[in-house]
Amino acid sequence: MHAKNLGDYLAETDHIDSLLPHAQRLMRLRQALLDALPEPLGKNATVANYRQERIIIYAANAAIAAKLKLLRPALLARLSSLGLQVTGMDIGVQPETEAKFSPPKHAVLSDAARRALTELASQLPESELKSVIFSVARKSVVAD
């Protein structure tokens, strides 16, 4: 028995066969967009829909959307050169709903920074601030 791809499963499902060409067109447009964009832009933009020969692209933020708008003529030309019938492009912003995992940031304190913090703390009256500064001065790495 051989493994089936997603298209095989969709083709077997009742009432979905009319959606299959649209889904395939969207997948082809998404891949063409990824191929046409530099990696940072491609990671932050996706094809949301295609209707009436217009492609709808969502960007992760306003800065990415602005860059895509600048690239719109070149992207349309590229998609047309690939034989895709795209005459217009709408670009919107749709922030990601899930926060991407990013490792915690760490700052390494130099010996001079530790000495300066210790000196500062010694000049302060007894307080929570003084104890926190002493605590930070004793650490070699400070997590953000």
Detailed description of the structure:
The mean pLDDT is 84. The chain has 6 helices and 5 strands. The chain is an alpha+beta fold. It is 51% helix and 17% strand. Helix 5 packs antiparallel against helix 6. The strands form 2 sheets. A 3-stranded mixed sheet has the order 1-2-3. The radius of gyration is 26 Å and the shape is elongated. The chain folds into 2 domains: 6-93, GMP Synthetase, Chain A, domain 3, CATH 3.30.300.180; 106-143.
Give the arrangement of secondary structure elements.
Elements lengths: L5 H7 L7 H17 L2 H5 L1 E7 L2 E6 L2 H20 L6 E6 L12 E3 L2 H13 L4 H11 L2 E3 L1
Parallel strand pairs: 2-3
Antiparallel strand pairs: 1-2, 4-5
Helix pairs in contact: 5-6
How many extended strands?
5
Which sheet architecture does the biggest sheet show? Answer: 3 strands, mixed
CATH architecture of the largest domain: 2-Layer Sandwich
Which strand order spans the largest sheet, edge to edge or round the barrel? Answer: 1-2-3
Find the structural class using helix and strand composition: alpha+beta
Rounded mean pLDDT is: 84
Q: What is the CATH domain class of the largest domain?
A: Alpha Beta
The protein's oligomeric status is single chain
Distance between the termini: 52 Å
Provide a quick synopsis of the model:
With 144 residues, this protein is α+β, with helices and mostly antiparallel strands. It has helices spanning 6-12, 20-36, 39-43, 62-81, 111-123, 128-138; strands at residues 45-51, 54-59, 88-93, 106-108, 141-143.
